[in-house]
Amino acid sequence: MKQGVLFVIFLITLTAICDTISQLFLKSTINSINLQVNNIGKIIKLIIRIMGIPRVWIGFFFSTLSLLIWLFALTKSELSFAFSIDSMHYIFIAFGSLLVLKEKIGSLRWVGIISIVVGIALVSVS
Amino acid sequence: MPKKTNLSIKIFLFLILTDVLETFTQFCFKKTAIPETGIEIKAFSAVIIFAKAVVLSPFLWIGLISVLFTFIIWSTILSKIDLSVAVPLASFSYIMVPLASIIFLHEKVPPLRWLGICFILAGVVFVSISSKQKKAEA
C-alpha cells in the first residue's frame, strides 16, 4: 500500500515535469512569434504560426507523454489525491519561467504561488 | 499604436473557460481510464490491452476535442501574459467549484477546505497584483 502511494507520487511528479517542459516550449514559441492577438482572425493566425514552428512539436510530445502518465496514474489513484500532489506543478512552472523564459518573478508573485500550492493541497485533501 | 493588454476581464474569462474545458477533459479521461482499473498492468500484453481500450473509448475522443479548444484559448492567453502568471491564475478553478457549491447549494464546507480556499484566493490576488506592478514599471 505504502509503495503504491509512493509510485503514484512518482508518476504525478513525472507528469508535472513533462507538462512544465511542454508549457515552456509553447510559451517560448509564442514569445518568438510576437503577434498582437485581438480578434478571432488573429487567434487563428497565431495558432497556424505556432504549428509551423518545429520546437512546439517537442512541446506537444511532452504534453502527450504527460497525459499518458497522468491517465495511468489515475487508474491507480483518486482524482482528489492526484490533484493535491499535482499542486507541486506550480513550483516547477515558476522555476521554469524564471530559468528558461527569464521571466521576472518578484517576492509578491512567489508568495502568491506558494500560497496557491498550500491552498490546493488543503482543498484537495480535506 | 497597439493597445497594451493588462490583466483584463477578458483574460480572466478566458482563464475560466480554459479551466472549465480542462475539468471537462479530466472528466472524459477519467471515464476513459475507469473501465480498466481492474487490469493489473504488469506484463507488456496488458499494456496493449489497456491502450486498445483507451483508443476505442468515445470519451477519449470527446476529451481530445476539448484539448484542442483548450489549446487554442490557452495559446491566446499566453500571447498576452507571462507563463508564471497564467499558470497560477488558472488555479482559480480550484475555488470555483467549492464556492459555487457553497453559494448555490448551501453545502457545509469543512474548515480545512475554507482555509485552502482562502490560501488560493490570496495567492491569485498576489500573483495578479505582481503582474500589474511589472506592467507599470515597464
Search tags:
heterodimer, A: mainly alpha, 6 helices, globular, B: 138 residues, mainly alpha
Descriptive notes:
- Chain A is mostly helical.
- Helix content of chain A is 82%, strand content 0%.
- In chain A, 40% of the residues are buried.
- Chain B is mostly helical.
- In chain B, 76% of the residues lie in helices and 0% in strands.
- Chain B has helices spanning 9-33, 44-56, 58-78, 83-90, 93-103, 111-137.
- In chain B, helix 1 (9-33) packs antiparallel against helix 3.
- Classes of the chains: A mainly alpha (126), B mainly alpha (138).
- At the A-B interface, helix 1, helix 2, helix 3, helix 5 and helix 6 of A face helix 1, helix 3, helix 4, helix 5 and helix 6 of B.
Structural class of chain A: mainly alpha
The level of helicity of chain B is over 70%
Strand content of chain B: under 5%
User: Which percent range fits the helix content of chain A?
Assistant: over 70%
Rg over alpha carbons of chain A: 17 Å
What is the arithmetic mean of pLDDT of chain B?
79
Distance between the termini of chain A: 21 Å
Q: How large a portion of the residues of chain A is in β-strands, by DSSP E?
A: under 5%
Oligomer: heterodimer
Can you count the beta strands of chain B? Answer: 0
Q: Count the DSSP helices of chain A.
A: 6
**The biggest beta sheet of chain A, please?**
none
Care to count the β-strands of chain A?
0
Shape of chain B: globular
**Uncertain spans of chain A, ≥5 residues at pLDDT below 50?**
none
Instruction: Summarize the helix and strand pattern of chain A as letters.
Output: HHHHHH
Mean pLDDT of chain A: 87
Shape of chain A: globular
